[in-house]
Amino acid sequence: MEMLPKDFYERDPALVARDLLGKILFRRLDSEILSGKIVETEAYYGGNDPSSKAYRGKKKFNELMFMDVGKAFIYMVHGNWLLNIVAHLKGHVGAVLIRAMEPLQGIETMRKNRNVKDIHNLTSGPGKLTKALVITKELNGIDVTKRNSELVMVKGKEESFEVCSSHRIGVKVDLPQKLRFFVKGNKFVSKFS
DNA sequence: AGGAAGATCTACT
DNA sequence: GTAGATCTTCCTA
Question: Most Cβ neighbours (<10 Å): which of A49, A71, A99, A111?
Fold first, then answer.
């Protein structure tokens, strides 16, 4: 299995967001490994992005967005933990929100964690995904480029799919460019449009 | 102390 | 499909 190298994340967040589609996210638990293919992401920037957590400057809770790329940045919104990967050009600020994935390994465990049966409902949203994978604040700052991390990102199989983009979901004020990316036709994306 | 926040679930029409 | 309640932290006053 080939890990995504750190410099993969040292690019414009929108490029990273698009290229994360089709990659495999692994969650190592004590007893089991869970995994899934990423099918939906969103890019966030820094001070010029009104809906970014980094918009109002560096704070304790968002400092990861200003720091080293390739780390998980996790925070709570409306009672849900959301998973981001820090990604930006050198000296810039940004992160990519992981919004949805297609479950691969450990599906029964995810069903238990989520307390739902329908596989299309297990990880088809940012808060659902973290619950299914047992991702909480405890993993904040974890390095997803290290092979032995509890959370790692690896290259998927080479396969072709069509990428669609749209405006970001749920944000108050969006930027003019489209910063949400998803795999066209995939049943596991959170919303169609 | 109060409220907003990158969401989800439920219960309706 | 849409509306409303509820979820839990951290920021701001």
Answer: A99
